[in-house]
Amino acid sequence: MSAKKSRFDGLDVAAMTSHVKRTMLGFKLANVYDGNALGVSGTGSSGGGGSGDGAKGVYMFKLADPSGGSSSLPSSAASAASVNGNIAPPQDAALPAGEGEGGTATNNPNAEEQETANNAADQKRAMLLIESGVRFHPTTHYTQSSAGSSSTPSPFSLKLRKHLRNLRLENITQLGNLDRVVDFRFGSGSYAHHLILELYAQGNLILCDGEYRILALLRTHEYEVNSGKKGGDGDGEEEKTKDAATSGKEEVKVRVGNIYPVTFATTLTAESISHPSSTPEDAKRGILDMDAANAYNWAKTELSKVQLMSSAANNEMNNPTATDNRGKMKGKTSTGKKKKVIEDSLVLKALLLKPNSGVYHYGPSLIEHCIWTAGLDPMAKLSLDNIEYTLPEASWDDLITALRDEGSKVIKNLISGEGGGGYILYKTKASNDTATNNNEGKSSNLRLPTLVTNQNQHSDKTLLEFQPHILHQHKEQQYLKYATFSIATDEFFSHLSSQRITARADAAEAAARDRLVKIEADQKRRVEELVKEQERLKDCAQLVERHAEDIDRALGVINSALSSGMDWVALEQLVAVEQANENPIALMIQKLLLDKDQVILALPDIDNWDEYGEDGLPPIRNVSVSIKESAHCNARIMFASYRASKEKEVKTIDASTAALKAAEAKARQQLAEAQKKKERVQVLPVRKTYWFEKFAWFITSDNYLVVAGKDAQQNEQLVKRYLRPGDAYLHAEVHGAATCILRSKRRRRKDGKTQVIPLSDQALREAGCFTICRSSAWKSKMVTSAYWVESHQVSKTAPTGEYLTVGSFMVRGRKNFLPASSLEMGLGVLFRLGDEASIARHANERRDFLLLEQEQIFAEREKEMDEIGASDTAMMTLSIGEQADANEEMGIEDEGPTPSIENQIEDISSPEDDVEIEQPEPETSKVASPVTDESNTTKSNPQPSKKGTTELSRGKRTKNKRAKKKYSEQDDDDRELIMMALHGGESSKAEKKGRGGRKVAAESATQLKAAEQTVALLVRDPKMIADTLDENVQQILAKCVTVKDAKGLEEVRWNKFDADVLEQLSEMETLVEQQAAANRLLNLSDTTRIDNFSASLAGIIRTIKKHGISFQDTNGSAQHGDGKQRKSKAEKQAEIEAWQEVLAEDGVVENDEDNVDGAVDDTAEIGKLTGKPTADDQVLHAIPVCAPYSVLSQYTYRVKLTPGSVKRGKACKQAVEMFLETKKKLQLDEGTKRDHALIKLVNENEWVQAMVGDVRITSAGASKATTKQKGIGK
Predict the structure, then answer these.
(1) Which of 547, 783, 1016, 1022 is the most exposed place for a label (fewest CB within 10 A)?
(2) Main-chain phi, psi angles of 1236, to 5 degrees
(3) Least confident segment among 16-30, 392-406, 888-902, 956-970
(4) Main-chain dihedrals φ then ψ at residue 1061, nearest 5 degrees
(5) What GO terms fall under cellular component here (predicted)?
(6) Residue 781 belongs to what H/E stretch?
């Protein structure tokens, strides 16, 4: 039994929209993924998204709170967290619940712990899943494998990333009257974009700009418009073009460049334009505004229409003389089958689902709930003849009351978020014992293994529906209760796909069993046939011996006739004549097979003769004998065939036994694979993959991160994205040496910026060993040394006349060669810690002693800076300001900030740049080597300019400064108006050409009218929304956006606000909160320059909703505007770095060249990884790592690797077996069991990707693992 419900309805959309609005507004979009890249499969009902374009329209939106940064416990791993040192089983966030009127709610004892963990994690991060035409909800059931994340995104994903990345989710709206259309608004002001999700029919996902002009979409289609239909407002006949007039219809196209036709996609109509503030309850109410009598008459009218349509259709179908234009009978379909008779009745539920009922937007579920609440049967058949006694006028009063009160109550609870969580309805699966017994009855000799029970906790259930509210018709069913509707939906869809996988696994298991039964039956049939053949040969041979004399006579007659030259036909005639004369020898001849030299004789079987039978005659058996042999010779041949058949029987039985064993082994393998598929169905939130795992990486013994590229493309990516100031670039003069980067550590100064800490010599040596081992020196067993340079010495600028290939770079200046290192690597296991206590327990595991010395030096320097007097600081500031003013007047621009004392500390690991090295000989080839150095480039030589920057002359720089100062009061709108005036009221040349210079075909009148209606309905005037606000709030906001025009008159620019933001302000609970938000915005506008008033006001509204106004200065104090101190530069910088960390997880690095000191530090994240976990630690998952063996000296699980001939896959299997090998008498503690379980969960591909190459395992126990592998191979 499959799920009854597999996509969202209107109520689900309302509930999920409310949930997302409460929990995700203000989150920034970090990235967009295709569903298949994160292991998320579609439900099969989604539309759009062709091959390679998402997972059938499934897309994942990674959102994060920019002020919150990364969570200590990621949501993707929250449910996999361990408790008391053990791995916690996968838990659904089902909350304890009692029985509800016959329905059973399943309890979950660990639900509260998981809910707390999930809530703590979800406050910072969220992954929003959107499937076109099906669903949208936050999810934790996805995988972030490096293989999937490295695949090329679909074009639509790239388009979404281009327009939406780094924008906040400002609002989410359900369009229409509970329609299945959702509008996600990202960004504010000029950066506003709309992502429209359609969840009906084939579905669609449409990206629009702020004016709802389509920028990209999944599926292009058209709405066909007939005259007088929706969208034409009755005058469509006059607006038709000539072509449309001939065809009788027009088309409204949904394509790139057009305005989204909201009046065709939703129930919004042109009448809604005059009532922009109307709610779904204010829509066409139908029977909700009627009394019982009018509702009863309306029902009779609708039933009379149904009766007329039914009679007309049935009369046309039953007319035997009527044929269609193809000559076929109208009473039959194209396949010849008789058409189904159309009934003249409707069930009550279908009657209320008619569009003019006024409650059709409730949907089938809610309408059925209201009908049951009124005490009626939803499936009661109504017709014009039986409505008087089936649903009399008195019953309509209760029905209307239930529809009005109960329906509005449910909708209000869902929209307000008071629905009470989420629910999954399920049905318990039937036991498989019956099927097993049937299989055992078919084949009693089969000995198939007993499979392990599926660990998926929903394996015994068939999930039917997900609901945000338990309706009346669901109370008798079993259900699971969850904390929120979001969790319930996520669990349902994740296990819905698992149900399909389980069904396929069950089918494969049944096929394997059936195949085994068929093989056994076939082998048994062959043996039985051999036995029957043996019995036949034995009996025939005995009969031939008993009647040998008569057989010899018959054979003699036949042979003599043939010897005399008698024809075959004449011989047959002679035999027939003699048989007629009752010649006993002729009567024995049954048939002559002279072409085969055989004759079939009818011999009486005296041994099996029953003298007291019906006729008293012995049975006759036909025996085929050769005419060239005597009777005894024929008998001897038959006995020889009998003995050969006996031997064949023995061989067949042996072969059957072997074949059956092979079939059983294959069946076991198939059953094991099916069981594995069932076990994989256990949908666990898979661990988060770090950005550096797609490269070759390890962590040094003093906690530095080392990253190396695996190919030329990764080398290019490493240098362009991840090489920061202060990092070390390592390479070796060996063929195949990879680009290796040693990531430096950073400390935060008091001004909020980060400062680079010098690299340690030990980290450089270990990174150099890693570089050598990742080159061709490993295979050739050549001991050599690597070198390192600083980041500014590496560039992509080739010498004149040469060019650099992908993965090749220029190295200028001195190379710092490291000591030669031995070729010794190791494969170890790192474990991700899950709580703060465990992280603190391993804080000093990889201590950097050089860092301790540097911290002392920095502390002393900061102390000296603090001792400087305030007066000296003020004088210094004044002098610097005066000098800056003087420089500005003279046209001199500062070269950069004055280096601080901390920045002037000499880098103890930096080489002297003034040392020249030998000039290399010029090469004939114009292609530079992968790593090329220019020894004649010294420190004084200018570095190549930054990409994308143009150096202006001194006069132009001064002119730009003066213009910026002169027009500082103008914003973008003012400048646009001035430029329009300068061009004589015309737009610029670029605007005349259109977007991208593309020629757009002329739109039809209906298309233009649909666009006008969309703009009128969705692009609202902020002034109209502002007029609905309180007068005081309106005045405060007006002060924020009041500017002076050219004549000096004040003008209020309400268009600087988005209408949605003003609506959010009006929806705040109290007037005090509205005034506090407006005062806060006014204070900000007085003290700082605000470029986007909508974004600032939306942020203030979110802050007040989250923290309240207890700290807010309601009197509008001009000092700060609130009672707490504003964020310091350090806090703001910390937020920027937290957001950079979120982007860096996906390899997205925003290179802010003006803030090179604000780079992300890796220490905090890699500090959560340990190589020697304890039993008290909370461990989330295991990560394989390959590093120099000296680095792994403290790891619990490690093996030593040297150059050898064992391939990576086989070596990984041996290493894992060594990790899991334990002594038989040794009893494992809980921590070791936990570690082994996590190691088993690591994918085999992860081990292979981490391995260095062809190796030889030299650790203790390697020979045993090798021997075991050989035994398995045999």
Answers:
(1) 783
(2) -65, -40
(3) 888-902
(4) -70, -40
(5) cytoplasm
(6) none
> Which of 491, 421, 427 has the alpha carbon at shortest distance from 456?
491
Q: How many CB atoms lie within 10 A of CB 1202?
A: 17
What's the CA gap between 1074 and 229, in Å, rounded?
Answer: 43
The Cα–Cα gap between 748 and 1161 comes to: 10
Cα–Cα distance, 501 to 109 (Å, whole number): 28
Contacts with 1253 (C-beta within 8 Å, 6 or more apart), sequence order: 778, 779, 1203, 1208
pLDDT band at 1261 (very low <50, low <70, confident <90, very high): low
Alpha helices in 564-630 (DSSP H): 568-580, 584-588
Mean pLDDT of the chain: 74
**Residues whose CB is less than 8 angstroms from the CB of residue 642 and which lie 6 or more positions away in sequence, other chains included:** 534, 537, 538, 541
As given in the structure block, the two tokens for residue 71 are: 């969570």
Phi then psi for residue 1268, to 5 deg, are -65, -40
Instruction: Report the run of H or E that residue 812 belongs to, with start and end.
Output: strand 809-812
d(CA 1078, CA 1075): 5
Asked if 754 contacts 1136 with a C-beta cutoff of 8 angstroms, the reply is no
Amino acid identity of residue 1038, one-letter, is A
1102 touches 1067 (CB < 8 A): no
Cα 1266 off chain centre by: 39
Tokens of 196: 């429209």
Look up residue 952 and give its DSSP letter: P
- At residue 148, the pLDDT reads 42
Q: What is the structure's pLDDT at 339?
A: 59
Rounded Cα distance, 356 and 299, in Å: 11
Count of positions (residues) in the chain: 1274
CB atoms within 10 A of CB 796: 13
Give the pLDDT band of residue 340 (cuts 50, 70, 90). Answer: low
For 643-672, b where at least 16 C-beta lie within 10 A, e where not — what string? eebeebbeebeeebeeebeebbeebbebbe
Render pLDDT for 918-940 as a digit per residue (tens, 0 to 9). 333 333 334 444 455 544 333 33
Handedness of CA 438, 442, 443, 444 (dihedral sign): positive
Q: What is the mean pLDDT of residues 567-590?
A: 85
Average pLDDT over residues 57-63: 90
Q: What residue type is assigned to position 917 of the chain?
A: I
Token couple for 111 = 């639900």
Residue 493 phi, psi dihedral angles, 5° rounding? -70, -35
Angle value at C-alpha 884, between 882 and 890, nearest 5 degrees: 105
Residue 861's pLDDT band (boundaries 50, 70, 90)? low
**Backbone phi, psi, residue 1147, to 5°:** 75, 15
Could you tell me which of 534, 540, 535 has the C-alpha nearest to residue 603?
A: 540
Q: CA-to-CA distance for 302 and 345, rounded, in angstroms?
A: 10
Task: Name the band, by pLDDT with cuts 50, 70 and 90, for residue 1045.
Answer: confident
Residues 6+ positions from 1070 with CB-CB distance below 8 Å: none
List all residues 6 or more positions away from 358 whose beta carbon is below 8 Å from its beta carbon: 284, 285, 286, 287, 288, 289
Query: Element (H or E) spanning 31, and its range?
Result: strand 28-34
* Bigger pLDDT: 995 vs 710: 710
Beta carbons within 8 Å of 140's beta carbon, 6+ residues apart = 75, 76, 78, 79, 118, 127, 490, 685
- Dist CA 1027 CA 1104 (whole Å): 22
Enumerate residues 6+ apart whose C-beta is below 8 A from 1257: 1199, 1200, 1201, 1204, 1206, 1211, 1214, 1215, 1218, 1265, 1266
Burial of 856 (0-12, 13-18, 19+ CB in 10 A): exposed
Burial class (CB in 10 A: 0-12, 13-18, 19+), 1238: buried
